[in-house]
Amino acid sequence: MTDDTRATLVSSDVRRHNLSAILDALAVRGPLSRSEIAEHTGLTRGAVTLLAGTLVDLGLVQEPAQSVGDAAPVPTGVRRGRPRTRLQLAGDRLALLVLQLDADSATAVISTLAGDELTRVARHHGRPMGDPDRIIDVLADVLREAMDATTRLGRAVVDLTVIAFAPVGGDPTIVLADTDLEWGEVDLLGELSARVPSMPQARLVSDTVAAAAAELALRPGVGDLVYLKSNSGIGGALVAGGQLLAGAHGLAGALGHVVVDFGGALCECGQHGCLVTVAGPDVVLHRAGLDDVVRDSGLATALAEFVARVEASDPLACAVWADAAEWIVRTLRIFALALDAEAIVLGGYWAAPALAERIRLMIGDEWPTLGGGKPRLTVERSTLGDDAAIIGAIAAARDRLFADPAALAAPVD
Ligand SMILES: [Zn+2]
User: pTM value?
Assistant: First the structure.
């Protein structure tokens, strides 16, 4: 590498850093004048003017058509006094798009760069098992509708994330195995773009990774946690030193496929006795006698009914949950200690107070006291509800964009 190349790389790094510092200041503090930006970022006024020009050109920042302290709109053709003009995040031209596929539905959420939801499109796919084509057809319809809606809003999609309720990995990234839908490996992005050629470039993420990132963001100071959730299957994420562990094959958090019942039932992943085969939602609902509700009203409704029955102390539902909880707690204890975690976060329908409380009590406060003081491990319920992964994906898209705004040469549309 020549000195010149190195200098260019270093300066482009600094430039990226400064661009994202300006975006962060505007996201956190709202509209700011150039002088105020300089004050909050420590950049010189001249640097702010230059960099802000770039951000305006990229369409990420705009000057509102109104001056500070001047309630009346600025007449057309009148040049605004620069020092009195405030800059703000472009609120009306760009959008983030998240597409989510779970065991019941395909959902698209369009949001502003600040993460405010503009509109959503959702459709049940009817869960035809082992038939990726029919489900991807529905997902493609939802994507088309969402892209049309974005256009009608006068916005361009600058980031598309596709969330699968399954482990993903490989290059290109594919769905590795979706036990909820009886899928093996499926190139979801490839299949989608074949159906919707105008689809923007997208990234595929697993729901648990996106949701765990959202949970981590809610817990500043917590660097080591085990996240385990169940909506359709069972998914997990492991966070060590503030970083989500991916592992060599992207499977580090796939705790639904930890073998707990040796020689047990065959799992879609090829192993026998995975956690999902003894405590997965389909197993739990079957044992609780709720197969009819799953078939007629979908998994989400059936799980809500199961939770209601546990809350009402229905003996069968409580016995089923007690059995499932034992397998779940066994898994949680192993990984909580392996990570020396500070917190276990329960998501999906396990976040219901009655269900989470049982797990909390079973984990109790019996914990190794090696090395002196008693370590503290809390068991917490997710508060993000069914949208946890979508919230996490939107935040990650925003962070990506802010971290490298210059990479946004032109909005994809
Ligand atoms: Zn498995």
Answer: 0.76
